[in-house]
Specification:
alpha/beta; Spore Coat Polysaccharide Biosynthesis Protein SpsA, Chain A; two-stranded antiparallel sheet; 9 helices; 27% strand; globular
Length: 266
């Protein structure tokens, strides 16, 4: 089952980082957030990825093209140019990096990948958000209802810190907690190939007409995920994710899986 990673947006709200790289390549703990997201899928056995590139897509292509060079140890004969890989922890992922157009919208990017996806169920997510989501449970739910599309519903994080007051005294303060009420689109989709019939050209925005029509037709189901979910839209979001990762207790971290098992490049 293939997984599409939408990685072509401009990331204008994270301009401090995205002037030189696409947002999915912004690093958390020294690893592109794109790799963190891929690890969520790979931990459950979904290792066939299609990265839908757009803005600064060449950065993504170069990164994966040189992945083995960056994350392995090598013996190199300078005279002959022969090189031997002597130690590696490279995961067995199959990664397509596909240019889907600099100005193409999310639905258009998915549409362009139809020939690669084929006539099979496929997964899809954004390249800028993480969650402690059980991908296998999402897939099982999708297969159970027989509809064309499943979206993961999540509780949004609060925009501001939450105060619990007792008179004028602050009893507790929680910085940007996960809300306990209300559901929003958290990405992490599962689709049947019939979804392609709901997608038009490059200007098609997945989150607008296609999902609205699927809902009207009774073909859109929600997999409810009440746990951790956090997008990386702003520098503040990046700093939060970095703090969680450095704490050693990042909710989305999968023990024994990439990126923690990969050798760091320098």
């Amino acid at each position: 089952m293939k997984t599409i990673l939408l990685a072509g947006g401009l990331g204008t709200r994270l301009a401090e980082e995205t002037t030189v790289k696409p947002k999915p390549m912004v690093e958390i703990g020294g690893w592109p957030i794109l790799v963190h997201i891929m690890a969520l899928y790979a931990a459950r056995g979904y290792r066939d990825f299609i990265v839908a590139c757009g803005y600064r897509g060449e950065v993504i292509k170069e990164y994966f093209y040189n992945f083995a060079v960056k994350h392995s140890d090598w013996r190199i004969n300078l005279g002959t140019g022969a090189r031997t890989q002597v130690q590696s922890s490279i995961p067995d992922w199959d990664v397509w990096t596909v240019d889907t157009g600099a100005a193409t919208m999310t639905g258009g990017r998915v549409k362009r990948l139809r020939s690669i996806v084929g006539d099979e169920t496929f997964l899809c997510t954004y390249g800028d958000g993480v969650a402690d989501l059980d991908i296998a449970a999402l897939v099982a739910f999708h297969k159970s209802h027989g509809k064309l599309a499943t979206v993961t519903a999540v509780h949004p994080p609060a925009r501001f810190g939450i105060l619990e007051l007792e008179g004028d005294r602050v009893r507790s303060f929680v910085e940007k907690p996960q809300m306990s009420e209300g559901w929003i689109n958290g990405g992490f989709f599962a689709f049947e190939p019939g979804v392609f019939d709901y997608l038009d050209g490059d200007a098609c925005v997945l989150e607008k007409e296609p999902l609205e029509r699927l809902a009207r037709d009774g073909q859109l189901m929600a997999f409810q995920h009440p746990g951790f979910w956090q997008p990386m839209d702003t520098l503040r979001d990046k700093e939060l994710l970095e703090k969680l990762w450095q704490s050693g207790a990042a909710p989305w971290k999968v023990d024994g899986a990439a990126p923690t098992t990969l050798r760091r490049s320098t």
